[in-house]
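G., the chain you wanted modeled:
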Amino acid sequence: MSEPQGTSIGEAYLLEARSRLRYYRWLTERALEQVDDHAFFASLDDESNPIAVVVKHLAGNMLSRFSDFGRSDGEKPDRDRDAEFELYVDDTRVRLEMKLNQGWDLVESTVDGLTPDALTNTVFVRGQPLSVLEAVNRQLTHYAYHVGQIVYVARAACGPRWESLSIPRGHSASFNAKLGRGHAG
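Predicted structure as tokens:
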């Protein structure tokens, strides 16, 4: 990460964290747009979570970790994490996606409100003290993991109808040529 002129390492970190969070949200939204309701609720096998469950878990995690951030433990007493891995009658696609959007909005507004000085403050998750920087990093990696699952399952469900969210297979050279770069590596 190259530091822009006049930017502290803390400011550069927050710019990158905000950028990554918005990218993960974008990936999630583009993947969800491509799957129908059947694919949203379907599992690849008996041990896999359907997209709906991953969405429900992400939303539950986001709302727990970032509600009242820094003032209360990130694992809220009313969160039922185990229930996030079960689907119930009221877990409609509309409701789950609405909760996920609330989660993304909360995460983004919370991280947008952080200052470089706040990165060394202490927050608690399940009673464990973490710096704000550690807490944000944990969530960035956690979200990347689950967004990857959503994209993978969505891609599998769509098959040849899938519209790539990255450089499509076999198109690296043309992508690099557009950027004025040499060989893909």
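The chain has one domain: 9-178.

Shout if anything looks off.
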